[in-house]
């Protein structure tokens, strides 16, 4: 942020006056920096300074209004976010799927947060727009169901909001596409490493509980900056990613501050689990992680409960909500719409494992699989 502020000041002092386009770029960069530290009022000030500049083309103004929409969304002001986003679309229509997904998300968040207070006619019209955009995405994109709309969708993979753990019963190993039988066989074959991985994870429960306490005491958990969680009068969402590039890591690419988690990661990979990343996730009291989709259906997730204050902490995936249990594992597909509530008075902590979908290698081998796994690491 200091760098962008100094760059802006340097432009102002330059012998040749900076163009309004250059100033707008600087203001927008500072606004982005403010968002990263949750200084949302300051972010709004800077993006509006950019919007007030004269002579910017409609496409540039649209970018600034989309940025303002992101700020309002982060501040839980979904109605304002939707208004700014739709204004940007009028200035410079973008018919790509990414913008359609964002539009759909804002419509749903607005309905969920203030739909009951809207006039019936307005609510019905907004609901109709949700159905229309969903239908367009399903008709023209790769997606197959309205509740599973990740940015990167890979057809043919088994899709269920919640999966059964090994030993809980036969999971539905059904898939669509020309290689459905092979894909079903790949899912069944994965049960061996899923079973081994589950045993390793459960047996690490107490050591992970202790390690989380050490990380928390040393102040090593980072507040999440994705603006998925509610900010006002609520606890923070904090994480420690075991294999994050910003942590001090050993030769195996695992964080030196989490030896217990790293030992588990090595064992899981040795057992054949196609692990993408692992880490601790702590959701503070009264926190809400807003409804959203994971970046791709090419990954699945396990949550091991470490600190669970009770049934007042829940996660909804698709249409079903569940609670965590200390020492037990939840198995889900975060490409389905999901949200987390912690209505308790203390934090909820889990250890999360993210791994490649068991059918990914068979259906999307080689370069496509590598790209899919790299994409999951963005989220």
TrEMBL record:
Domain Aspartyl/asparaginy/proline hydroxylase span(s) in chain numbering:
221-358
UniProt keyword terms in alphabetical order: Dioxygenase, Oxidoreductase
Superkingdom of the source? Eukaryota
Q: Name one GO cellular component term.
A: membrane
Q: Which GO terms describe its molecular function?
A: dioxygenase activity
Report whether Oxidoreductase shows up as a keyword of the record: yes
Region forming the signal peptide? none
The Swiss-Prot or TrEMBL record describes its family as follows: Belongs to the aspartyl/asparaginyl beta-hydroxylase family.
Q: What is this protein called?
A: Aspartyl/asparaginy/proline hydroxylase domain-containing protein
